[in-house]
Amino acid sequence: MYSKELLKGTLQVMILQLLAEQGSMYGYEIYQKVKELSDEKIILKDGSLYPALAKLHKDKLVQFKEVAVGKRKRKYYELTKQGQEQQVLGIEELKEFMATLSKVLFPNQNNYALN
Amino acid sequence: MYSKELLKGTLQVMILQLLAEQGSMYGYEIYQKVKELSDEKIILKDGSLYPALAKLHKDKLVQFKEVAVGKRKRKYYELTKQGQEQQVLGIEELKEFMATLSKVLFPNQNNYALN
DNA sequence: ATTAATACATAGAATTATGATGTATAGAAT
DNA sequence: ATTCTATACATCATAATTCTATGTATTAAT
């Protein structure tokens, strides 16, 4: 795993982005998806994930429906309108930051670029 | 400026990397270099930079020589042997993290890659 | 029957960047 | 002359975020 500090500021964007792609997900599903897409290199801790979801909800960027599956309940989250806007902004900022960081760290290379 | 959280974990790597490239720099010089390379998009705050340098020194990753310039004094920092090792590790980790993050966020694209 | 996986959550600890503030020198502008 | 800006360092309280540890409970697998 990576230094936990590197993850900072990216967790919220990751969640918003996944919800934008998938439409609706519950917490544990996000955990699994991130683990899968990252080749097991990013393992979200539940002590990080659930508070992050709670904060997104508090900030009205996501809403959820509770769904019972047997006797267990899942909270299916989806983006609010505000959340959609924030997702776009967040991804934009993150892309730019990564591009800028590349310029600082590797000034002699063809730097980071995504379309 | 970017969300300050995004910078977390990257400031130390940036400093070590610049010192590896430039050999020796003083604090304000690092501030200027980062500002220049980032097209003014990363403006280090002295409340971040000097404590970061102090921590690197405490951790024996850098050493410095005080040089008087007129009546002002500069602290010229350079990597210790330990610092050189950490610089390599830190850059490696950061590159990998950025690549992994790209995979999670943009699974359908030709992802981030630097040689 | 026990373990691992699923599914949520909270509270305290740790880390790190920021804002505010402080000291002081040097050059530029008015 | 004076004022403003840049140079050059530093500390401290605050804010933000993730982690560890802990807790509850259901379900599937061995």
Explained architecture:
The structure is a homodimer of 115-residue chains. Helices cover 57% and strands 16% of the residues of chain A. Chain A is α+β, with helices and mostly antiparallel strands and 115 residues long. The first copy, chain A, has a single domain, classed as Winged helix-like DNA-binding domain superfamily/Winged helix DNA-binding domain (Arc Repressor Mutant, subunit A, Orthogonal Bundle), CATH 1.10.10. In chain A, a hairpin with a 2-residue loop joins β2 and β3. In chain A, α2 (11-22) packs across α5 (81-105). Chain A is globular. The A-B interface holds A 2-10, 13-14, 17-18, 34, 37-39, 41-42, 91, 93-94, 96-98, 100-107, 109, 111-112, 114-115 and B 2-10, 13-14, 17-18, 34, 37-39, 41-42, 91, 93-94, 96-98, 100-107, 109, 111-112, 114-115. Chain B binds a DNA duplex (30 and 30 nucleotides) through residues 4-5, 7-9, 11-12, 26-28, 31, 44-48, 50-52, 54-55, 69-75.
